[in-house]
């Protein structure tokens, strides 16, 4: 693994299963056993009905760009060597919105409502980040 200078997520008891699933390149999210809705970011209770009963469930990894920003300058920032960086909010097919990055994109791919699919960036032996790329056409 390369020398990492950017901040990485802290794996907590609540998020451990999520990070294990991304490490396996098969993302899972919590799905409420009461109301049936998925939520993200991992936590101990359903974001919609407050139930503490949930199941870690595989998700499709498909979604659309809900919003985006293109970071073109990062002077003095841990991401300085990585610009430009496409920061996106993805609305997953299952409902939740998650922040990530768009990778392997070309002109016209960074747009609201553009279809995307998850891929994985193995950053360290412990952390694999879910990132997105334009969906296969």
Automatic annotation (TrEMBL):
Coiled coil: none annotated. Residues 29-54 form the ChsH2 rubredoxin-like zinc ribbon domain. InterPro entries: ChsH2_C, ChsH2_Znr, NA-bd_OB-fold, Thioester_dehydratase-like. Keywords: DNA-binding. GO terms for molecular function: DNA binding. It comes from the Bacteria. Residues 56-120 form the ChsH2 C-terminal OB-fold domain. PANTHER family: BLR3430 PROTEIN (PTHR34075:SF5). This is DNA-binding protein. It comes from Nakamurella endophytica. The lineage of its organism: Bacteria, Bacillati, Actinomycetota, Actinomycetes, Nakamurellales.
């Amino acid at each position: 693994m390369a020398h990492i200078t950017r901040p990485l997520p802290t794996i907590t008891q609540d998020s451990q299963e999520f990070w294990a699933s991304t490490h396996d390149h098969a993302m899972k999210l919590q799905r409420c056993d009461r109301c049936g809705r998925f939520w993200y970011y991992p936590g101990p209770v359903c974001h919609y009905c407050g139930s503490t009963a949930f199941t870690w469930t595989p998700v499709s990894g498909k979604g659309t760009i809900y919003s985006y920003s293109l970071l073109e300058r990062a002077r003095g920032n841990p991401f300085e060597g990585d610009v430009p960086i496409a920061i996106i909010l993805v609305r997953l097919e299952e409902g939740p919105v998650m922040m990530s990055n768009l990778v392997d994109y070309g002109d016209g791919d960074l747009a609201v409502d553009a279809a995307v699919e998850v891929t994985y960036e193995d950053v360290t032996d412990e952390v694999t980040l879910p990132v997105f790329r334009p969906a296969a056409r």
